[in-house]
Design a protein that fits this description.
With about 160 residues, the chain is mostly helical. It has five helices and two strands; from the N terminus they run αββαααα. α2 runs antiparallel to α3, α3 runs antiparallel to α4 and α4 runs antiparallel to α5.
């Protein structure tokens, strides 16, 4: 059922801890691409939270808090799509560390940036606004990792 994963470990631990393996045909990954799963979950959540904000919160939040909530949804969605790009890159270059690092940084950014803004909008707790820049740094670091990876690939192919 799970592709021969019956050696006592759980499928979730295999998903997180999987390392690429070499075959005669080249690189392949024997486990599901975690970033595709994360992209799908976060895309779903971004749509659901956006719809909840548009239909359930617009009459309950002030204009400022609604704008904060919409910013959280936008960045959540952008980086769900970025996780999808990381999934594609990591399937194409399974041994490359920088795309994986960018994926985890994007995920941290979603949790810290969008998560703190969602909570700020819903609770009005202004101190949560101080968490958002940390998540923004996660987003920036993720994009920087992808940039470094792309530059490195240019030098390798040129």
């Amino acid at each position: 059922m799970l592709g021969g994963w019956t050696n006592g470990s759980t499928w979730m631990s295999r998903l997180w801890l999987a390392k690429p393996q070499v075959s005669r045909q080249g690189w392949h990954v024997q486990t599901m691409n975690i970033f595709l799963l994360l992209a799908a979950i976060n895309g779903f959540l971004a749509v659901a939270l956006g719809a909840f904000g548009a239909h359930g919160l617009s009459a309950r939040l002030t204009a400022d808090l609604m704008a904060t909530y919409q910013t959280a949804v936008q960045y959540h969605f952008y980086h769900a799509l970025a996780l999808f790009g990381v999934a594609l890159l990591s399937s194409q270059f399974p041994a490359a560390a920088l795309p994986r690092a960018s994926g985890y940084l994007f995920l941290a950014g979603i949790v810290l940036f969008s998560g703190s803004l969602y909570l700020l909008a819903l609770t009005g707790a202004r101190w949560l606004g101080a968490v958002a820049p940390v998540g923004g740094l996660g987003f920036l670091a993720g994009w920087l990792c992808l940039c470094i990876f792309a530059i490195g690939r240019q030098f390798q192919s040129g």
